[in-house]
From TrEMBL:
Subcellular location: Cell membrane; Membrane
Top-rank lineage group of the source organism: Bacteria
Membrane topology, as annotated: Multi-pass membrane protein
Name this polypeptide is given: Sec-independent protein translocase protein TatC
A Pfam family that the UniProt record links to this protein: TatC
Membrane-crossing residue ranges in chain numbering: 20-45, 65-86, 107-135, 155-178, 190-208, 214-235
Alphabetized InterPro entries for the sequence: Sec-indep_translocase_CS, TatC
Top-level taxonomy: Bacteria, Bacillati, Bacillota, Bacilli, Bacillales
Organism: Paenibacillus phytorum
Description of how the protein assembles with itself and partners: Forms a complex with TatA.
UniProtKB keywords: Cell membrane, Membrane, Protein transport, Translocation, Transmembrane, Transmembrane helix, Transport
Family: Belongs to the TatC family.
Function: Part of the twin-arginine translocation (Tat) system that transports large folded proteins containing a characteristic twin-arginine motif in their signal peptide across membranes.
Length: 252
């Protein structure tokens, strides 16, 4: 490898390390704030269904600490997400034009908004559905549910977080379209394969019955179709910008 390319690689790795360190510092700071806010959030969750319909138990002295850690992590992830995305943008922006830098930077607030919408949908729609299904199974088997608080929240986060991340799909597609890595034609071509992947994802997130799979899969299908429309919108915008530049160049 030439010395110049080696130096460039070292500089990129150094920048990547710096940005990762920044993200870790912010995550630690926001987790500290998350610990302070965890009790209020926990009390709110305890008053909403399905948590309000059950008695919470701890089965280990560490359960309460695990609970605080999980709540603090969710708060930290939500608050830190814009900063993480900004650091990713800062790392890749050198390979973008000024117009692309400006355009992709504007995606960050919408990314956070999609994550929050996914969080709300997952917690208030999908998670209660999953709890109702598992409770029904327990009742059919004549079992008395006794939930450990740490296990309850682990189960909840295993459902809520993946679905919240899935709601980022439209913004990711727009970003990749802006970078010319995706386009509507490609998304249409691989639609059937994408749907298979989304069905598998829905089956992993939701309870093992057809109705639950459909209730999760249908929003994921809608997100994919929205992504196709947004990709076409971004591509049309790029074509208009290119035509305008060609006109201005020809006039000069």
């Amino acid at each position: 490898m030439p010395i110049k390319e080696m130096m460039s690689l070292v500089e990129h790795l150094s920048e990547l390390r710096t940005r990762i360190i920044r993200v870790l510092i912010v995550i630690v700071l926001t987790m500290i704030a998350g610990f302070l806010a965890a009790k209020k959030l926990l009390l709110y969750l305890k008053q909403t269904s399905p948590a309000s319909d059950m008695t919470w138990h701890v089965f280990s002295p560490m359960d309460s600490i695990r609970l605080y850690m999980m709540i603090a992590f969710v708060i930290s992830l939500t608050v830190t997400l814009p900063f993480i995305l900004y650091q990713i943008w800062g790392f890749v922006k050198q390979g973008l034009t000024k117009e692309e830098q400006s355009a992709t930077l504007r995606y960050i607030p919408y990314t956070v908004l999609c994550f929050i919408i996914g969080l709300i949908f997952a917690y208030f729609v999908v998670f209660p559905m999953c709890m109702a299904f598992t409770t029904q199974i327990s009742d059919n088997l004549g079992l008395t549910p006794t939930y450990g608080v740490a296990q309850y929240f682990s189960f909840m986060l295993n459902i809520v977080l993946p679905l919240s991340i899935a709601f980022e799909l439209p913004i990711v597609v727009m970003f990749l379209t802006r970078l010319k890595m995706l386009n509507p034609k490609l998304l249409n071509k691989f639609r059937r394969y994408a749907y298979i992947v989304l069905v598998i994802a829905a089956s992993l997130i939701s309870p093992p019955d057809l109705i639950s799979h459909l209730m999760v899969a249908i929003p994921l299908f809608a997100l994919y179709e929205i992504s196709v429309v947004l990709s076409r919108f971004v591509l049309n915008g790029q074509m208009k910008e290119l035509s305008k530049l060609n006109v201005e160049y020809g006039a000069s």
